[in-house]
């Protein structure tokens, strides 16, 4: 063992909050590489542990850490910085590191935002992390992306095996491992999305490596479910179909969820997804109004065909018993209330199982954010800002947009307005023979219904709306 002792932390959205949906694959992969090199590593997923600042301070004080690194997400950057501040207070000799999306977006400017960072790292850090820990040469590294992601080790999930990641908001999904099959999105043009700048290029792992990892997750680690956290799974691609066929051939029946685009779902893909054990898909429909879809650059073809594409994808999901969670945007740039209503009306009657409206956000790294900054609609340091009338890019206030989100959630998901939706959902689960999902969620029904009944998932305080 070497003299270094590294603590890697994934921060929560709020101190004390607990979110057990996905494992923090970024720091887990870095920890795996450090451990292989004989470096002592500890991983804390604070978003799943729910520690208080005091408990975090005690953990650092009682440890022998030489380095503490955090993932910085733009909306919660202050919590990440406060962890580094705690580290420096406990022991000013600890070397602090910051990486993750926010650093990749704002690069070395992060050093001006937070004086407690010794070393900032933009981009994918696997190939340099050992060097950065052992022989640091500078305060800022811009590493770009890794081309051959097959060369990376599987994340060592033993660092977080004591935590059961089993919830998607209030829906129980079973003890889950998160996984990546590809890095980056193959479309990369949506103007509201900031991921193409972050993940830089679309790269695929070989089907053999993916299925080898699935086998470990199912047979050795005994997880009950997988959440594939790819930006978007191309269900109709040769690559995805090869993965699915191999999973079926190897008898790996562990269920999984993933994100996908409606225009990437074909019949063969939907059938293979079901045979391979897919429980459901999260699909971003964004809007059904051709003008909005065109402006969002969501698709390549005629935006007038978008609602047809969506309906066809949802029909296929219905035929092959795949649960569909459909997300859409409310309050996009220059979107009228009538246009929002058209999308709500579509979602109310479409063959989707759960619909999830999101208020429009100007996100650093997205084309819309860049344009709004250039036009002077928002300030360059408003990295994560909900749309508002004061910007001149919507007729609505942020509050009105949030109210519309609540209304949309209620109208599209209420079991009173939409009983057939729940009949379909239960039919899909029964045909999947997904008894544990049915049983566990029946027990949680009061909580789930409370969500549907308009409990905001956004616990945002006013000063955090436009920062
Ligand atoms: C899975 C995921 C989630 C999961 C799990 C998050 C987790 N525990 O990792 C869940 C669903 C919980 C989630 C939640 C949120 N997410 Co999210 N999520 C993702 C997603 C799709 C994949 C992340 C991932 O695992 N990548 C794979 C790993 C290997 O890459 P990585 O994490 O980036 O790590 C690499 C580098 O960044 C770097 N690195 C990372 N950390 C560190 C630390 C150090 C010290 C160093 C040196 C390097 C380093 O090295 C790693 C290896 O290469 C990304 C989009 C994307 N494609 O990245 C969005 C993304 C990260 N999420 C985002 C957001 C905004 C959120 C939410 C705020 C959403 C919300 N409104 O509620 C919440 C907040 C999370 C929280 N703290 O509570 C944004 C972040 C934008 C930003 N500017 O910060 C992204 C980029 C999506 C987007 N909209 O553009 N998310």
Number of helices: 19
Ligands (ions, cofactors included)? cobalamin
Q: What coarse outline follows from CA principal-axis ratios?
A: globular
Rounded mean pLDDT is: 94
How do the helices and strands line up, and which of them pair or pack?
Elements: E1 5-10, H1 25-36, E2 40-45, H2 46-49, H3 53-62, E3 67-71, H4 77-90, E4 95-99, H5 101-106, H6 110-113, E5 119-122, H7 129-134, E6 140-142, E7 167-168, E8 171-172, E9 176-179, E10 182-183, H8 195-199, E11 203-204, H9 207-220, E12 225-233, H10 238-249, E13 256-260, H11 267-275, E14 278-286, H12 290-296, H13 306-319, E15 323-330, H14 337-349, E16 354-359, E17 361-363, H15 367-374, E18 384-386, H16 398-413, H17 419-432, H18 435-443, H19 445-452
Helix pairs in contact: 3-4, 9-10, 10-11, 14-16
The structure holds cobalamin (B12).
The site of cobalamin (B12) has 40 residues, from helix 1, strand 3, strand 4, helix 5 and helix 8.
Keywords summarizing the entry:
6-stranded parallel β-sheet, 19 helices, 467 residues, alpha/beta, pyruvate-formate lyase- activating enzyme, globular, binds cobalamin
């Amino acid at each position: 063992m070497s003299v270094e002792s590294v603590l890697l932390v994934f921060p929560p959205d709020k101190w004390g909050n607990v979110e057990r949906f996905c494992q923090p694959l970024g720091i887990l992969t870095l920890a795996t590489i450090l451990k292989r090199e004989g470096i002592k590593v500890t991983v804390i997923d604070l978003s799943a542990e729910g520690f208080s600042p005091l408990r975090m301070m005690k953990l650092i004080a009682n440890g022998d850490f030489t380095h503490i690194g955090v993932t910085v997400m733009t909306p919660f950057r202050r919590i990440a910085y406060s962890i580094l501040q705690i580290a420096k207070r406990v022991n000013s000799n600890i070397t602090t590191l910051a990486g993750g999306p926010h650093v990749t977006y704002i690069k070395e400017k992060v050093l001006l935002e937070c004086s407690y960072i010794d070393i900032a790292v933009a981009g994918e850090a696997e190939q340099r992390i050992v060097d950065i820990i052992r022989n640091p040469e500078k305060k800022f590294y811009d590493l770009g992306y890794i081309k051959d992601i097959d060369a990376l080790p599987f994340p060592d999930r033993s660092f977080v095996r004591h935590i059961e990641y089993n919830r998607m908001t209030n829906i129980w999904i079973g003890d889950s491992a998160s996984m990546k099959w590809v890095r980056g999105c193959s479309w990369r043009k949506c103007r509201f999305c900031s991921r193409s700048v972050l993940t830089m290029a679309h790269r695929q792992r070989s089907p053999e490596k993916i299925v080898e990892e699935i086998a470990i997750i199912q047979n050795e680690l005994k997880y009950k479910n997988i959440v594939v956290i790819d930006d978007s799974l191309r269900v109709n691609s040769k690559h995805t179909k090869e993965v699915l066929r191999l999973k079926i051939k190897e008898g790996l029946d562990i269920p999984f969820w993933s994100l996908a685009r409606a225009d990437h779902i074909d019949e063969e893909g939907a059938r293979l997804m079901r045979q391979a054990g897919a429980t459901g898909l999260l699909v971003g429909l964004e809007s059904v109004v051709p003008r909005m879809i065109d402006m969002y650059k969501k698709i390549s073809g005629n935006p007038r065909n978008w609602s047809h594409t969506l309906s066809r994808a949802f029909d296929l999901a219905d035929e092959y018993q795949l649960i569909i969670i459909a997300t859409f945007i409310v309050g996009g740039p220059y979107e009228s209330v009538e246009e929002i209503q058209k999308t709500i009306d579509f979602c109310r009657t479409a063959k989707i199982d759960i619909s999830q409206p999101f208020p429009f956000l100007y996100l650093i790294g997205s084309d819309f954010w860049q344009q709004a900054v250039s036009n002077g609609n928002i300030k360059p340091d408003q990295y994560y800002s909900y749309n508002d009338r004061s910007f001149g890019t919507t007729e609505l206030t942020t509050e009105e947009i949030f109210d519309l989100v609540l209304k949309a959630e209620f109208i599209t998901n209420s079991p009173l307005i939409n009983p057939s939706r729940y009949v379909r959902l239960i039919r899909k689960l029964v045909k999947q023979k997904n008894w544990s999902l049915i049983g566990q969620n029946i027990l949680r029904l009061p909580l789930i219904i409370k969500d549907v009944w308009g409990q905001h998932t956004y616990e945002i305080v006013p000063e955090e709306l436009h920062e």
